[in-house]
Amino acid sequence: MNIRTRVSALAAVITAATLLSGCQEEQVVTGTPSANASSGQRSDSSTSSGATSGDATPGADGTDAGRREHLTDKGGYVVQGSKVTFVYNNGVRYVLDVGAPVGDRTTIRNGTGTLTLKDTTATWVDLRSRSTSTVDGQGAGTVIDKTGAIVVAPDGSTTCANGQGLQFVGSDGSKGQASKNGAFFVDADGKKTSYGSPTAGGRAAGRFTVCNIDKQVSVDLYSDVLFDFDKATLTPAGELVVASAASTIRDDVRGKAVNVVGHTDSTGSADYNASLGLRRANAVATKLRTQVPGIRLEVSTAGETQPAASNATEAGRAKNRRVTISYAR
């Protein structure tokens, strides 16, 4: 993030933080952000395992599950029933429930605020607190509510204001400590991890995100590093990555419930993807228990239902294949 962009982001966050003083405790339309992001190269097609594909195919937009994805490879929004999920390029997801099915409407008004939907852009204006949350096709925008404010730039650089003060995080995570914010990588041999920037020939293995306004810490582990194609057994590099993540969160999770959720792309049937997501989440959970004795885990699957990017391209599908570890700070 350059100086001018950072100054603009800081100004926006300060303005947003000022607006927070007018927020009320009662919420008619609720927003719950959580971090999910990933990277990789292979597709989790179920056809190689004999499962039925047809409920969803490469490029499907989730309509098989009553879900409409308005996403690019970087972000956008997803509509499902009465909920609209803002999806940001740094992994943050923000969910609004407008209380009634959205359908094909592009403007929804209720007693709380106004939601406007256009292509891959969504804007929420809260009439009571006078705050605004937005996302565009670059996965950039703002998230503002009573607990804090986030500004996400098109390159993924993030500025946020919450109970822990102002934080700046570069697009590669190098401006934040791994235990707070940042990306981490595995080397070309799959034997070492590094934080902030990859070694020669290395690739992204995951991302820590605590720049969330609901006081959540999230660690997204990329399935294409953790597992071989269509498998749920950790690779040697995957074992290393989970162990590295465990060492970072070990002191922070004592006495807390930790969620481990498996996610897939939309290739293959919805049922198969739910099963694959659960098997992969369980594999990560098993490794975590050996690394953090006594850790309290809640393991589940979201399958293909919480995309982080478009399922219409391989780059987007790769971002959807991930296992997320999260807990309240």
List keywords for this structure.
single chain, OmpA-like, 329 residues, OmpA family protein, 33% strand, alpha+beta, membrane, 20 strands
Can you tell me about this structure?
It holds the Pfam family OmpA. Residues 214-329 form the OmpA-like domain. Keywords: Cell outer membrane, Membrane. This protein is of the alpha+beta class. The protein has one domain (3-328): 60s Ribosomal Protein L30, Chain: A. It is built from 5 helices and 20 strands. It has helices at 3-19, 223-226, 236-249, 270-291, 314-320; strands at 31-35, 67-71, 76-80, 83-87, 92-97, 107-109, 113-118, 121-126, 131-135, 141-145, 148-152, 158-162, 165-169, 182-186, 193-195, 203-209, 216-222, 257-263, 296-303, 322-328. The strands form 3 sheets. Strands 6-7-8-9-10-11-12-13 form an 8-stranded antiparallel beta sheet, covered by helices on one side. Strand 7 and strand 8 form a beta hairpin. Helix 3 (236-249) crosses helix 4. The protein starts with a helix and ends with a strand.
Beta-strand percentage range: 25-35%
Can you write the helix and strand succession as a string? HEEEEEEEEEEEEEEEEEHHEHEHE
CATH class: Alpha Beta
CATH topology: 60s Ribosomal Protein L30, Chain: A
CATH A-level architecture: 2-Layer Sandwich
Average residue pLDDT: 76
- Kindly name the structural category: alpha+beta
Oligomer: single chain
CATH superfamily: OmpA-like domain
Largest sheet: 8 strands, antiparallel
- What is the number of domains? 1
Our count of helices gives 5
Organism: Luteipulveratus flavus
Region (Disordered): 30-74, 306-329
Subcellular location: Cell outer membrane
Domain OmpA-like: 214-329
